[in-house]
Design a protein that fits this description.
The chain is an alpha/beta fold. The protein is built from 18 helices and 28 strands. Strand 19 (400-401) and strand 20 form a beta hairpin. The two termini are 41 Å apart. It binds S-adenosylmethionine. S-adenosylmethionine binds at residues 7, 26-27, 62-68, 91-94, 147-148, 165-167, 172, 174-175. The site of S-adenosylmethionine (SAM) has 22 residues, from helix 2 and strand 5.
């Protein structure tokens, strides 16, 4: 099943939830909140240890109702002197729905200020990584949804504290399997502490074997004992690459080159995370490049079968929803999606047989599917909203020196390259190809509610505006220009999608616009640290001769890329922004290890090496 499994919820008279699958309570019937504070928070030395790091990370096995998270968040808010950031990463195989979480948490009015915030932004029920932030409280939740055997090995997190809360080991062995402990150890920062309510022999032995120091301490309520544990080692010993996260040294100074959707999204996530961001753009104002069509559409790419790539495109779509919802220039729209041909019709059929999203997001309709979480965007309003609070230097020809981390001689901690199609000049090794995307639009006599219909091409309406397109032709170089051929292609498509508009278009003034979409050979984006390609060609030379090379990818420290977004710029943007903000701050990633490899900027060079082309 592609949708996550669900708990079999039952409720005790006092309001405590029970999962009937394993016949166990989510938390102590005596007082779940007091238990969370005693077993997990105090058990991991909190709040005293918050001051150790600029970004403090707590991880948890078993998110459940979010009670432990909320107890922690409330404690964090009470620490008024803190200037750091709290990351909470949790793993959940059987997510409750929003209503049930709200019902369970209503037991604790004293948590209302934080539980309302959680319920408001509660993630969609889909497998994958969901990252949600509350910048006003300096808190981020990263929720990995899926079975623990899949999600834990895939997670990019190094925690300072671990809460083990996966039902009773006797009733739910999968959550306490021996294979878990080395994976938990590998995700511990130096000096991490771990706490759990159970003292089961297998758990103690498993933790000790993985290298934890374990001690039994007096338990909460009727439980005689609980466990506290220390991780004495460092990340380097576990084989995973350590993230940079030292003591607070002031906000990171980040330069972003390009104020299109890639740059603006990165700016928003970095600014919200507390970075001091400067954006440089050649244009004299926002939304003049490829991101500047009058209307844009965000809808999901839904693959027929599950897989890393299918989850990755879904995560990006859900991240875009979370980012844009409520911003100026963003409207929710139901997108009617007709298959463009027989092959796509078969793909829809297969996908609907085992859909990746629930009925709140996706529904089968006659002749296609309905995406209920689609977004209709007005980039001219949205992009300035994303850049709100950020210094933007318009009409500036930025001259970055990536190795020195300077732009026009000015020093930064990190530089993000987000220059869209222009990137191909700076990064020839990425072998980006340009695709010319032309759209047409008119101002109608009639006001319409938000409307989106697609079947290869699309027709969009918002207010008085009607927009249709887009073409996807080769771009051979130079400035993008409007073509009559593309206009005819779009007109043909419109007659099929919205024939009534076509009547209006024939009589009215139609405007056209072309943007160049930068596309990698695999049609996936480039998101992540910038490789040092000259060094990479040497370190990975063995690939030319079919050898396996395990060496780390040489990187240009402090340099990052967000680009190659093709025709899905508005979908990839926010997710890329979140990934880069996590890289730059050494925070838990909203992307798995395998996902990171799929979008890694260096992947084309590695392919070329293997094929003897580099
Ligand atoms: C005791 S409850 C957690 C309570 C939670 N910490 C809270 O604050 O409400 C255990 C959680 O582990 C989850 N779980 C159990 N088995 C799992 C598995 N194999 N993979 C992932 N999650 C699992 C359950 O769905 C449940 O939400």
């Amino acid at each position: 099943m592609r949708l996550p499994a669900r708990p079999k919820l039952e409720w005790k008279q006092d309001g405590t939830p029970v999962d009937g699958r394993v016949d166990d309570v989510y938390y102590s019937v005596e007082d779940g909140l007091a238990e969370a504070r005693a077993v997990f928070l105090a058990g991991c030395g909190l709040p005293e240890r918050f001051a150790e790091k600029a970004g403090f990370t707590v991880a948890e096995l078993g998110f459940g109702t979010g009670l432990n998270f909320l107890a922690l968040w409330q404690m964090w808010r009470a620490e008024t002197a803190q200037t750091g950031w709290l990351n909470f990463v949790s793993f959940e195989g059987f997510p409750m729905d929003r209503e049930d979480v709200s019902r369970a948490l209503s037991t604790w009015p004293e948590l209302a200020q934080v539980s309302e915030k959680l319920v408001e932004k509660y993630p969609a029920c889909a497998k994958g990584v969901h990252q949600i932030s509350w910048p006003e409280d300096r808190v981020t939740l990263t929720l990995h949804i899926g079975d623990i055997a899949e999600t834990l090995p895939a997670a990019q997190v190094f925690a300072d504290a671990w809460f083990l809360d996966g039902f009773s080991p006797a009733k739910n062995e999968a959550m306490w399997d021996d294979s878990l402990w080395p994976l938990v150890a590998a995700r511990c920062a130096r000096g991490a502490r771990l706490a759990t309510f159970t003292v089961a022999g297998d758990v103690r032995r498993g933790l000790s074997t993985a290298g934890f120091e374990v001690r039994k301490v007096p338990g909460f309520g009727r439980k005689r004992h609980r466990l506290e544990s220390n991780w004495p080692g460092s990340q380097a010993e576990t084989g995973l690459v350590a993230t940079r996260n030292g003591p607070e040294t002031g906000p990171k100074r980040v330069a972003i080159i390009g104020a299109g959707i890639a740059g603006a999204s990165a700016a928003r996530f970095l600014h919200q995370r507390g970075a001091d961001v400067t954006v440089f753009d050649r244009a004299s104002g926002p939304a003049q490049g490829t991101s500047g069509n009058p209307l844009a559409l965000v809808m999901p790419r839904l693959d027929a079968v599950d897989g890393e790539e299918a989850r990755l495109v879904l995560s990006a779509y859900l991240a875009a929803q979370r980012c844009y919802d409520g911003l100026p220039g963003a409207q929710r729209v139901d997108v009617t999606h007709r298959p463009r041909d027989e092959t796509e019709a078969q793909r829809f059929e297969k996908m609907l047989f085992d859909p990746p999203l629930g009925l709140d997001q996706l529904e089968a309709i006659a002749g296609g599917v309905l995406h209920k979480g689609g977004l209709l965007l007005r980039p001219a309003e949205l992009i300035p909203a994303l850049l709100d609070g950020v210094e933007v230097r318009w009409a500036s020809e930025a001259v970055p020196d990536l190795s020195a981390r300077t732009v026009g001689g000015e020093q930064f901690d990190a530089i993000v390259l987000a220059t869209g199609w222009q990137m191909q000049e700076a990064l020839p090794w990425a072998r980006l190809s340009g695709r010319a995307g032309q759209v047409e639009w008119l101002n109608s006599e009639v006001e319409a509610p938000p409307f989106a219909l697609t079947g290869g091409h699309y027709a969009l309406a918002s207010g008085y505006q009607r927009l249709w397109g887009a073409t996807y032709g080769p771009h051979t170089g130079g400035e993008a220009s409007v073509s009559d051929g593309a206009r005819r292609e779009n007109a043909q498509a419109l007659q099929d999608l919205a024939p009534y508009w076509w009547q209006e278009a024939k009589a009215g003034t139609v405007q056209s616009r072309t943007g160049v979409r930068a596309t990698m050979t695999d049609f996936l984006p480039m998101i992540g640290p910038m490789p040092d390609v000259a060094a990479l060609l040497e370190s990975h030379a063995g690939l030319r001769h079919g050898q396996r090379v395990d060496a780390p990818i040489p990187l240009i420290e402090g340099a990052y890329i967000a680009g190659g977004f093709g025709s899905r710029g508005f979908t990839w943007g926010p997710w890329a922004g979140a990934i880069l903000a996590a890289h730059i701050h050494g925070d838990p990633q909203p992307i798995t290890f395998a996902g990171q490899a799929i979008v890694a900027p260096e992947r084309q060079v590695l392919r070329d090496l293997k094929r003897g082309k580099a």
